[in-house]
Write a structure and sequence with these properties.
Elements lengths: L1 H18 L7 E4 L3 E2 L6 H14 L4 E2 L6 H4 L6 H5 L2 H11 L3 E9 L4 E8 L6 E9 L4 H18 L4 E7 L2 E4 L12 E12 L6 E17 L4 E8 L10 E4 L3 H6 L20 E18 L3 E19 L4 E18 L6 E17 L9 E18 L4 E20 L2 E10 L3 E4 L9 E16 L2 E15 L6 E16 L1
Helix pairs in contact: 2-6
Amino acid sequence: MKTIKLLITSFLLLLALDTFAAPSARRCMVLPVRDSVGGALGYEVFAKIEGYLKSSRWCYYQYNSEIINILSNYKKNLDAALENPKVLKLVSEKTNAGSLIKVKIESLPKGVAVNMQIFGANGRDIYFNEKIELNSDDPGLIAQTANNWLDQYEKQIPYDARVLGVLGQQFSIDLGKDAGIFTDYEVKVVRPMRRRKHPLLQEVVDWETKTIATGRIIHVGESLSQVKVLRYEDKSLIQAEDWVLISKNTKESEKRDLKYDPVEGNDRTSSFGRLGEFGLALKIGTGSNNNSSISNGTKSINGVDFAIAFDSELWLTRNYWVGLELEKGFGKYSKDAGNLVSDSNSMDSSRFRLLAGYKYLPMGFFYGPQVDVFFGYGSYTHGFDNQVADGFTEINFSGILVGARASMPLVRGIRIYFQFDFMLDPGYEEDVSIFGSAKDTSNFHVAAGAEYKYGPNINLYGGIDYLSDKAEFASDGTKVTVKNTALKGGVKFAF
């Protein structure tokens, strides 16, 4: 029986030699590591990265001895050669590597700048691109940074294996015991239909796929396995180069999406490169409006607010982004202090913020710790009913704002965030003139909370949001203060 299986496996592999076009992204090689100090750092960093890849299970490492003859023709200008898609494509063809790893090190006055790019087999598609500045030129630290990036890259490869050849209701895949898989593992076969690239970075950010079939592994070799088809999910038949996603067994695959496991964090699409994200949230909280003067004392109302919020962020590059925030709310207020003509008031609020920012990545990973600084334009409208005798009307604070926010992973799947921003000398307007022009105004906004990664493209989040607007008038020292504290919860979608 083992002999029959071996013959079938050999036949499928021979069949694949004629049909298999592009090498798998899980076959990788490191291009010569370039530095600005004549190779003093590059060689040692290369050796450490190569050692990591040789011992890894996700990458079938392709030794670079095959490319010596190719690159020997470019000794005088090797950097330019490694930028040439035709040269990279030729290297891929000669080595059968689908992930070409290029690392470049540039010396700085203090430390180095490290850039890693991973190209596809055609030499043009960029599957990964990260850059970081380190305060040290230690080769071990540089190599470890590169290896951390490779761990991140492995998670965003959109498949575990690929179909090599098909024979009836069985097919072979390019994965075996050396990758840690065994018989009876269930697989899902999908077909890539279209790839999406970031419009500015030109990096491959996403793939459209369709499900073809499910199957079960029936024989495992060292680097090749056989799978039996359990059922077809589409009219199409399995073909060479279809993608294979692997689960451990039928029961487990019924419990979870094969492309994402929130417990194990096996998110093949959770990587930078998507165009951005948008979110919808509900808010509930308390607010207050009070005005005080020497002549009239303090008059104050407070109540409960409800609001619907929309937040969006578009990533222009890995570090630069623009954002839009909209909010519409309402509330019912009642007397809190002072002698009021009317003991109740209603409020119709709105918020508008248009932002642009820079995202600093301390660890070099887009989904690691993040620190953002931003500026933009903001407008807050507190639409109270006109009650002139009590000093209440619709008021608006607007102007240029600046701020910062930070977020970091806490445990797997959960990250926390904190944000603070304020307006620079905001403008003040009243719907009905009561106090006139403001002598001095201020605004600040604080938010904090946590996000939970519910799915590859879905984050659930919740937190607290605090807003304070103040205006002071020259006539008799009158002050108007509007505050709001709310709990906010919603969902974000990556696109």
